[in-house]
User: Fold this.
Amino acid sequence: MESPNPGNIFRKWAMDMHHQGKQMNALANGRSISINAGGPDRIFGLADTDLFLSLTCRPMMLDFVTEWRLSEADYAAA
Assistant:
């Protein structure tokens, strides 16, 4: 059985600036967003199961423009 690699899915999402722009637009328009990853896994080597991870975000209404909305993306060292 092949192990899931949610970290790889989340890293690819983090590098996809085009898709993140769409998600930022959705947040700015009052919609929630999420990224999901999953696949087969084993519990302590005893049982097969499905593993699902989700990162979600809901919009926060602000009445001012913040610096982060205008800046380029920065990445932390992995």
Remarks:
- The CA atoms of residues 6 and 68 lie 27 Å apart.
- The chain has a mean pLDDT of 77.
